[in-house]
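Residues determine shape. We examine one folded chain.
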Amino acid sequence: MAGISRYTAALLGITAVYVLTATRVLLHRKEAAPGLVVTVERAEADQILWQAEDRETGGWPIALLPGEKIDLNRAEVWDLDRLPGVSRSMAEAIILWRKQRGPFQNLRQLKWIDGVDEELLERLSGYIVISP
């Protein structure tokens, strides 16, 4: 390492370890998020759209990540609220319906929720998965 002092080399090493650790933590958080099915093939560092751990205080993403799909039978209000055309009150109604009647079997059952019409179903079809 000609031209670089030991101090500079140590600083570069520490910085590299920090960056790798921070990246691993962020990726782990994304994989461990309950209620989400993330299918991102390639993600850049500047595309990570959330940081906070507490979803109740607004640290959750306000838009879907590229390629992300929401599992209708596992999602919470804050997950459903991020779907295009779904308001917070509609998300709460979806959760209530699921608690009262059990898991959704198909996307068409969403029509039983007040405010959900054919147009919204069509819009949501690419963003929702239904687990058994």
